[in-house]
Amino acid sequence: MTRHQIDPRQFSDSDLARHLLTVRGVQWMNGDRGAPLALLLRDHGVDPRTLHATLRGTPALRQTDLDVWVTACYEPAAAILTDPRLTSRDTTRQGRRRRVYSLGAQATAKFVLTIDDTALAADHADRARTGELTRDWLSGPAVERHRARTADTFTGLPLPDGEQDTFDLLADYLRPGTAAALAALLGLPAGPAQHYAALLPATTHVLDCLLCPPTLATGRALVEGYDGIAALVDRALAAPRELPPGALAGLLHAAGGDSAPVRPVALLTLVAGAHLATNLACRTVAALLAHPQEWQAVRQEPARADAAVTETLRYDPPVRITGRIAGEAMEIAGLPVAAGDLVTVLVDAAQRDPAIHPEPDRFLPARAAGAAPLVFADPRISLLEPVVRLVATEAVRALLARRPHLTAAGEPVRHIRVPVTGATARFPVRTAGHQTAPHDGAAAPR
Question: Which residues contact 292 (CB under 8 A, 6 or more apart)?
Fold first, then answer.
């Protein structure tokens, strides 16, 4: 794996705190001297789109530190994410995983924490193998069989009925609905499914902690929540005869009863998949509320929800930054990249590349099909695309059907230190109220 990426379970609070604070301090200092990637990763007091504009053009790949590269352009971003020579692991630096990062390390702090390599650090070859296993259970056609059940899950959630009642879109609707939908899709028994829903919020930073150090308390809670969900999966896989019909039972059968390849798929879906689907649905709703004419279009024609979700994947994706490690010396966008260098893709910037998308800063669900969203080009999460799209689309569709006059009751509140996902913590909405005038071109809340 990459340099100075440690497993927090293996370190005391004092050593883990030193690691996190040092990486955070280095990012902060590099941001102070104007390093654009450091400014994005420290995730404080900067407009990302201003930085994105400065990173476009020639050269398409910029070196922002000694062995760290970044691109905000679509074509090199797509090439980076689909190149098997760029990996999740730096095999030349295995020993550094046993050390916390220090100012005397004489190396750039690249990835920060590892939570589960088997589930969260897949490369192209890993995903090719997993694809064979999951084809009949988590592919697009397989997941489509669960559309009606997923829709029923969101339709059945209790919501306030009174006029002007306010509720939290995340806590009262998207998080519980997504957890219930994924538990049903995988076939978790009822008791473990409820426990999973309770543990899930603690794992919010599971994708962000790779590039941005969480606080000590958040990091410890993340591990506790993730390990709790892993224990639920392990118990379910250990008793296959007690599993309800669903993907877990099907995957176990496809694997000949071997739980080893099934476990990481289940954890990836239940943890990363849940947060991606929740964030994608939240941002789709936010974008629709910011563009009332689009809200009305989906309300009148529910099939348009799919197009709104697809446009949100481009306009305000649930993963904004992703990093890959050069597994060998190579050339990218005409520039020499050394083995072990970190190559970072600004996904949100690349998907607003004006060379690829006309009017890139406008939210246009009716936009003609063009370049594919880059979010799921990353092999670490590519497996999740059908599930995430399905859950987010049905969450949006059910919400519009149930609360057609929904309005924002305040600004969305983001978690801290979430530059990778930009995860929303709270989003107050009102069941009825005055719709504001359209303001096409406005950005969805970040």
Answer: 435, 436, 437, 438
pTM of the model: 0.93
> How does residue 98 score in pLDDT terms, banded at 50, 70 and 90?
low
DSSP 96: G
**Residues 6 or more apart whose Cβ sits within 8 Å of residue 14:** none
Report which residue type is found at 159.
L
Q: Is 22 helix (H, G, I), strand (E, B) or coil?
A: helix
Q: Which residues of 158-173 are buried (b: 16+ CB within 10 A; e: fewer)?
A: eeeeeeeeebbbbebb
User: Is residue 1's pLDDT more than 80?
Assistant: no
Burial class from Cβ neighbours inside 10 Å (0-12, 13-18, 19+) for residue 141 reads: exposed
The bridge status of strand 428-430 relative to strand 166-168 is antiparallel
Angle between helices 13-32 and 216-238 (to 10 degrees): 120
Q: Do the Cβ atoms of 408 and 310 come closer than 8 Å?
A: no
Please state, in angstroms and rounded to a whole number, the distance separating the CA atoms of residues 406 and 149. Answer: 24
What are 167's strand-pairing partners?
429
Q: How far apart are CA 314 and CA 414, in angstroms?
A: 20
| Angle in degrees, CA 85, 315, 169, rounded to 5 | 115
* Selection from 49, 48, 74, 44 nearest residue 61 by Cα: 74
CB atoms within 10 A of CB 385: 20
Round to whole Å and give the CA distance between 347 and 76.
11
State the helix-helix crossing angle for 190-199 and 216-238, rounded to 10 degrees: 170
User: Ramachandran region of residue 94, left (φ > 0), alpha (ψ -120 to 50) or beta?
Assistant: alpha
Residue 178 and residue 157: Cα distance in Å, rounded?
A: 11
Kindly report, residue by residue over 151-181, the tens digit of the pLDDT.
Answer: 999 999 999 876 668 999 999 999 999 999 9
Strand 413-414 relative to strand 424-426, pairing: antiparallel
Burial state string for 313-333 with b = 16 or more CB within 10 A and e = fewer than 16: bbbbbbbbbbbbbbbeebebb
Residue 4 and residue 11 in contact, taking contact as beta carbons nearer than 8 Å = no
Quick one: which H or E segment has residue 280?
helix 274-290
Fold of 8-430: Cytochrome p450 (1.10.630)
The Cα 213–Cα 79 span in angstroms is: 27
User: Residue 364 is encoded by which pair of tokens?
Assistant: 């246009």
d(CA 92, CA 3): 9
